[in-house]
Design a protein that fits this description.
mainly alpha; three-stranded mixed beta sheet; two-stranded antiparallel sheet; 25 helices; about 5% strand; globular
Length: about 575
């Protein structure tokens, strides 16, 4: 069914709960494996029905944040989703003590029981009101950011649309756009501080109610980080500073030399070349057509997948006023549709989004008939699929960038190096924040600025008070909506760059390994999926260094003065 044909109807939480509990009673009382397995599958079908309406409401709300009717629908789900979590936790409790547990494990895999154990630890009816508050605060952040409208040179921009001006050749335009952006956010600073204050407090409160020392412990469990811990992450961050930091310093020096500047300010960071940054030569509709051709050439599997996306209207990528500032891939569970949401703005990021989110969507497409818990892997593994697709599609980038394709490669990998440091910095920030939940907004801002100076010492804000005062992070939605997600990008980047290395030597082998982990979906925890994909764990001593040396050598081989 096409996206436009899918009907929305608010589901009754009371009716949903009644049917769910009736099925769960049957599951508990089943006197044969066949009966218990049949009820098991009916429970999943019931969940898919409800989840699809939630997903559809959120997508429609993001498509137009000014749509008050859909705002009401997402508000409704904010209040009832904790009830669905309570029901699902009851199911997981029944699952781990099921009479025919061994047969269920043999048919559906052992990992669902690991996930179930984590879900049980991460929920109690005692925190339901807190979950409602967290959902409402998260939605409030989306509304605040999405509502920002900036008038510049006679045109109205949202924050995403403004990004195109940051790669304008005219430095004064970039500076003016940058000032407009940060001034607009500064006007919302007090509100953004208040939202984050409340989020930190409610998350800490939930963790304490569940018996955890702080939200860090709770969040690791809720993110199914089964085979690594915060200490391993801290060591990984140190390795990134040690081995990626010098590469970024070299890139910054080359950047200044290319532009002929003494200083690279915040409004110069996205503008990399005096000849113009690489940007797609086509409008969004043509980009999608070329995307179809690219995925038809990449593999039989990707051809089928992208045709499915196009045929069923599952790519909403056109920017427009009131559209949420976001790029993501999600699903419409009942229909087994992956769905891509983005805001093309005429920059190279359009192609990054096309390939990155398509990596997520392709993995889901490969796993779409699995259990709900297996359709997606844990977040850091999911980002391997997305980031690797960015590199595996390199042979087709000339179709989008024409003569600027090598410039795009250099720019893309350079930005990957910067993002590694940024994401580690953001993760470090969150660990400090949730270890110290009583910090004031100004104290948190000081922590952010100190970490910036450590991880990204080349940043220069040209006396922009909002940024100098440590508020850059307030437009990073992951810090509000998806806590502790940023490190997943960094871990996945080290894995994806290994596929970049492999793809240069053995395209067929690289694709076979990639397809293997896409088909595995969420059936394994992170480090086991890494192994299944013939990748080296980013936590292994020397792994970050190995990847860094390869990237450094590649970047040194390019004469960027020609750009």
């Amino acid at each position: 069914m096409k996206f436009s044909q899918i009907p929305y109807k608010r589901p009754s939480i009371e009716a949903y709960a009644t049917t769910f509990l009736a099925l769960l009673t049957q599951f508990d009382k089943a006197d044969s494996f066949l009966e218990q397995d049949s009820i098991f599958q009916k429970l999943y079908e019931h969940r898919d029905e409800f989840d699809t309406m939630f997903q559809l409401a959120q997508m429609k709300c993001d498509a137009d944040t000014t749509n008050e009717a859909m705002q009401d629908e997402t508000g409704y789900f904010n209040t009832v989703l904790p009830k669905t979590e309570e029901l699902e936790t009851a199911f997981y409790k029944s699952l781990v003590k099921a009479q025919f547990k061994d047969q269920l494990k043999e048919k559906w895999g052992a990992h669902i029981f690991n996930i179930a154990s984590n879900k049980i630890k991460g929920f109690s009816p005692e925190i339901m009101d807190d979950l409602v508050q967290e959902n409402q605060l998260s939605s409030e952040y989306t509304r605040v950011i999405g509502s920002i409208s900036i008038e510049l040179n006679g045109k109205d921009y949202n924050l995403t649309g403004l990004e195109k001006l940051f790669v304008d050749k005219d430095r004064s335009i970039r500076k003016k756009a940058s000032s407009a952006k940060w001034n607009a956010l500064a006007e919302k600073q007090e509100k953004l501080d208040s939202i984050y204050d409340d989020l930190v407090n409610v998350r800490h409160k939930m963790a304490r109610k569940l018996g955890f020392e702080n939200f860090i412990e709770l969040r690791y469990i809720k993110m199914d980080r089964i085979d690594y811990n915060p200490e391993m992450v801290a060591t990984f961050r140190e390795q990134v500073i040690k081995h990626i930091g010098p590469i970024v310093q070299k890139l910054n020096n080359r950047h200044k030399k290319r532009l002929g500047y003494d200083h690279i300010f915040e409004y110069d960071r996205q503008f990399q070349f005096n000849s113009g940054d690489p940007s797609p030569k086509y409008q969004p509709e043509e980009i999608l057509k070329k995307g179809r051709d690219m995925y038809a050439s990449l593999s039989v599997e990707t051809e089928e997948f992208f045709n499915h996306m196009m045929k069923n209207e599952l790519l909403d990528v056109i920017n427009r006023p009131g559209k949420a500032m976001a790029a993501y891939c999600w699903e419409l569970s009942k229909y087994r549709h992956p769905y891509i949401f983005a805001c093309f703005n005429g920059t190279s990021n359009d192609i990054k989004v096309l390939t990155h989110e398509a990596g997520h969507a392709f993995q889901y497409y490969c796993s779409r008939e699995a259990l709900i818990e297996y359709r997606w892997p844990s977040f850091e593994a999911a980002e391997i699929h997305a980031m690797s697709m960015e590199y595996l599609t390199y042979p087709w980038m000339n179709n989008f960038f024409n003569e600027d394709v090598e410039k795009y490669f250099f720019s893309h990998i350079s930005k990957s190096m910067n993002s590694l440091l940024f994401n580690c910095s953001g993760d470090h920030f969150q660990h400090i924040v949730y270890e110290n939940p009583t910090m004031t907004p100004n104290e948190r801002a000081t922590v952010w600025r100190d970490l910036e100076k450590n991880y990204l010492p080349t940043k220069d804000f040209d006396d922009c008070d909002f940024l100098e005062n440590g508020r850059y992070w307030q437009w990073i939605r992951h810090l509000y909506k998806y806590p502790f997600y940023l490190i997943d990008y960094a871990l996945a980047q080290i894995c994806a760059l290994q596929y970049w290395q492999k793809n240069q030597k053995d395209k067929n082998g690289a694709w076979a390994d990639y397809l293997n982990i896409c088909k595995a979906g969420g059936t394994l925890p992170f480090l086991e999926l890494v192994k299944k994909g013939n990748l080296r764990s980013p936590f292994d001593p020397g792994c970050v260094q190995m990847v860094a040396e390869s990237v450094d050598k590649y970047l040194d081989s390019i004469d960027d003065s020609n750009f």
